[in-house]
Write a structure and sequence with these properties.
The longest helix is centred in the C-terminal third of the chain and has 20 residues. Strands 1, 2, 3, 4, 5, 6, 17, 18 and 19 form a nine-stranded mixed sheet that branches. The chain has a five-stranded parallel sheet with strand order 12-13-14-15-16, with helices on both faces. A three-stranded parallel sheet has the order 7-10-11. Helices cover 35% and strands 18% of the residues. It is an alpha/beta fold. Helix 5 links the parallel strand 12 and strand 13. It is built from 15 helices and 19 strands. The structure holds zinc ion. Zinc ion binds next to loops.
Length: 451
């Protein structure tokens, strides 16, 4: 583990170097390999990385290695693809609160760096982005912005006096009042080559105006004319059915009011709609106040700022959660969401992965993704199913054919873990190293490095 020790030395010297590119091909030899396709893990694997790509995958000792390759011994480790959050946000929280002035280039870049240090190698910032997101994405494609690969839904489309309720800058969401304005918003985003379009169809327990079916039908129609997929925020079963009937491509949250029925299952399957459960969303309203012990480990601590940690540990925060009349509803919603995830997964619906991390202070980028995997397993998915959702399926959702699985030709986006997450999903937190586009990144918390 020569390069890892070097990595530690750089950190000890306080240098800002978080990654280094490898000029020569690298072979990671001897690990158990989870390739993201759902196939059983392979032992004693060899993974060949050349530049930013994987060039070969096989069994150690049986695979021909390229000339001059550097061999990295990873016996006893497990390798899996980097996590892909198909539903996250950047630049919405500053300090301890959501703020309309939070969305700056620096905040976006900090968030991308943090995701990557947690093994989340790609994210979709699913709405509420200022237009500067397009510049950041372009700069990243030219190698000028490190951190998790950024895919974006641009501003996204809500309605006046409706969801999303976060305070944002004027160029952070479209609020069309007519169908024609909504179509114009789509055309503007298409001009920016958004990766996907986001809409919000919800009334937040009756508190806000909900987008009309006329409006979302027009948005979906206009998106499909521009070959753009549409992801919708959703809560209610009836809205999910109406959205799927109108051609929506992604349900970006769980159905949380009622158990899903055969009609929705059939529609999701026949239309190939992706379903992102985001179980973390409903739980985030009460988890930290009710189970403060989850904040005790280093993996959590390193994911939040000292001021946020202080707020989460404070009496005021706990009292506010206790007095929030929505909390019992969120608990019921989480239970329904978990049930629905199991039903839909077992029925063969395409389950992808996302957390809504970054949307609120309680939805914690990096930590939230690992926690979401755990929640999916608690809902009844196998660890392997949760991993496939967070890798192959989420890549498919954003049509990113260059990532999501560890196969020849794909990007070298993967995690080296000290323990096998198919044995215990919490082992995704045992990060030894993160590889992103063939660059080795020092994890924010390298739990296992000295084991
Ligand atoms: Zn969201």
């Amino acid at each position: 583990m020569r390069c890892m020790r070097l990595g530690s030395v750089f950190v000890m010297l306080g240098l800002a170097l978080t990654s280094r590119a490898h000029a020569e091909p690298v072979v990671l030899e001897g690990a158990r390999l989870i390739d993201g396709t759902g196939k059983p893990p392979r032992d004693n694997a060899a993974l060949v990385v050349d530049g930013e790509r994987i060039t070969a995958v096989g069994i150690a000792g049986k695979l021909r290695y390229p000339k001059g390759a550097r061999i990295v011994d990873v016996h006893g480790r497990t390798i899996m693809p980097g996590l892909i959050s198909a539903h996250s946000h950047v630049g919405l929280v500053a300090g301890t609160a959501n703020r309309a002035d939070a969305y700056t280039r620096e905040a976006v870049q900090d968030a991308l760096a943090r995701y990557e240090q947690y093994g989340v190698t790609s994210i979709v910032s699913l709405g509420l982005n200022r237009d500067l997101v397009y510049e950041v994405r372009d700069d990243q494609k030219h190698g000028r912005v490190p951190g998790a690969s950024l895919f974006t839904a641009g501003r996204g489309i809500g309605v006046a006096n409706g969801t999303p309720p976060q305070p944002v800058a004027p160029d952070q969401s479209y609020r069309p009042t007519t169908v024609e304005e909504a179509r114009a918003a789509v055309r503007e985003m298409a001009g920016h080559k958004v990766d996907i379009v986001k809409i919000w169809v919800d009334d937040n327990f009756g508190k806000f105006t909900k987008m009309s079916p006329e409006m979302f039908k027009a948005v979906i129609d206009e998106c499909h004319k521009h070959r753009l997929r549409v992801a919708s925020h959703v809560f209610y079963l009836a809205d999910a059915k109406a959205l799927v009937a109108a051609g929506v491509d992604v349900l970006a949250h769980s159905v949380r009011d009622l158990p899903v029925d055969a009609e929705l299952v059939r529609a999701l399957k026949s239309r190939g709609v992706f379903y992102i459960p985001t179980l973390n969303v409903d739980e985030s309203f009460f988890l930290l106040a009710e189970q403060p012990e989850v904040m005790d480990d280093e993996f959590f601590k390193q994911a939040v700022s000292p001021e946020l940690a202080q707020m989460f540990h404070g009496k005021e925060f706990r009292d506010k959660v206790q007095a929030n009349p929505s909390v019992p509803k969120e608990k019921a919603a989480l239970a329904v969401a978990q049930l629905n995830l199991k039903t839909l997964h077992d029925a063969g619906v395409q389950v992808a992965f996302g957390t809504d991390s970054g949307a609120l202070p309680e939805r914690i980028p990096g930590w939230g993704e690992h926690h979401e995997l755990e929640l999916m397993v608690r809902a009844g998915l196998s660890p392997m199913d949760a991993i496939v959702a967070a890798t192959q399926k989420s890549a498919a959702l954003i049509k990113a054919t260059d990532r999501g699985t560890l196969e020849p030709g794909k990007r070298a986006d993967f995690l080296v873990l000290a323990a096998d997450p198919t044995a215990d999903i919490r082992n995704t937190r045992q990060l030894v190293s993160v590889w992103h586009g063939g660059r080795e990144v020092t994890p924010r918390v390298h739990t296992a490095q000295n084991k």
